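Thread: Newbie trying to understand structure tokens

Hi all, I'm a second-year student working on a class project, and my supervisor (Dr. K.) asked me to get a predicted structure for one chain before our next meeting. I've only ever worked with sequences, so writing a 3D structure as a token string is new to me. If someone could post the tokens and maybe explain what I'm looking at, I'd be very grateful. Here's the chain:
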Amino acid sequence: MNSAHLAESVNTHPVVVRRILGDLRKAGLVVSQQGKNGGVALGKKTEEITLLDIFRAVGEESVFAFNPNPPNPKCPVSVNMFRLIEPVFRSVGVALESELDRIRLSDLISGIR
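---
Reply by user tm_fold:
Sure, no problem. This is what the structure looks like when written as tokens:
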């Protein structure tokens, strides 16, 4: 299947699909072939691919992002925010990764009718 067809099926631009496919290719989750009859296919069996593999392949390091700016030293909320919220975010991230690692691509495909 080529990127234009994939993009049409998920209602997005082919460039977005090609970027994501490049990430998936680097992770060994898909293989591609150039040319007139080229396209993309899975690089592993669906039973071997977890949602965590996909999540990591597309470069998602965390579900949450922190403000990149330094805290305002005059604000008690600002100076304490990272210390208070980081353990919560870490815990949620561990739970998310555990759940994503439990689900195989084959599990999702079996639900397509």
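A couple of things are worth pointing out once you decode it. DSSP finds five helices and two strands in the chain. The first helix runs from residue 3 to 10. Feel free to ask follow-ups in this thread.
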